[in-house]
Amino acid sequence: MGGGALLFCAAIAFAFALLTTPLVQRLALIVGAVDHPDHRRIHARPVPTLGGIAVAVSLLAALLGFDWISGGAVDALLTQYGWRLRYFFLGGVIIVAGGAADDIYGLSPAAKLLIQIVAATLAALGGYGVDAITNPLTGGQISLGALGTLFTITWIVAVTNAFNLIDGLDGLAAGVAFIAAISIILIAQVETRPDAALLAAAFAGALLGFLRYNFHPASIFLGDSGSQLLGYTLSLLSIQGLQKGATTVVIIVPILALGLPLLDTAVAILRRSVVAGFATIFRADREHIHHRLVAMGMTQRRAVLVLYAVCLAFGAVAFLSVIARGPFKAVLLAGAVVAIIVGVRALGYRPNAETPTKTADSSLDEAAKLPRS
Question: So what's the pLDDT on residue 284?
Fold first, then answer.
């Protein structure tokens, strides 16, 4: 599918997001889905949540609208490439509904995990998943067999939670998801996957429109309904669109495309389990990457922009790893690993390490509080 069609579909989603987000703000206020400031929050005033509903509606409206304008071309394209949309959207509805319930009433970590597993299992039963991965040394395929379904469910749940954890500063999760979607578009074009490119374009347009209201100072938050929807959608886009191209892409590519949230989650799990034991893995703390940057003296806006740059770097490496051949690919991936290690150490992630010392900056009062996640 040509670039003009992708831009047009993205523009529809963008316009719908601009129009629907204020309506969702009012809905959130009516039903009480409001994030109130307290000792754990950075913001100083109540902010409505449920932003995921605006993103979901805009994505769906763009696909349906473009399908109508194109005379059914969207449905034909997605069906051709194996997208069983009823499973995709039903899983998304479960994720958004569960997240909205958490935004309004509050759910236990176990209940949230169960909802994610149900949605992921539904997607796996609908045919979404990874049957084989590429051996990075030989280029041959490694069949996962029966483990493919388990791998798929684990991947969807992991990415869903990763975006939930990184949603701690205004515009961070939505911006990271937007950059990841752009990366997927570029990779899908190289891999001759117009279906994945189209879906990612619609998703990117919806996110960009939502960011108009979500970037600092945000007038609406994604909430769990939004952050989990971002992870769920990108997890399926990455495995369905990037793993089944003309040449099967090694699993490292979707990992790189979603590098920042996955890295933050991995560091959080290792940090909590090493320092205080596995029982603390699901316990909230103030040691996520975005917390560290704010604690080091950055304002919210500056920290978010720095992390956007990191995501752009991850996306660039993911794209280059697709088009690279021979030793250059190995050097590229090795360089990415070294950069990650250096970055993690620069943030002070060591056993029993303290939060970096705050410097004189306007963000000091904010850094003393915990962000939303």
Answer: 59
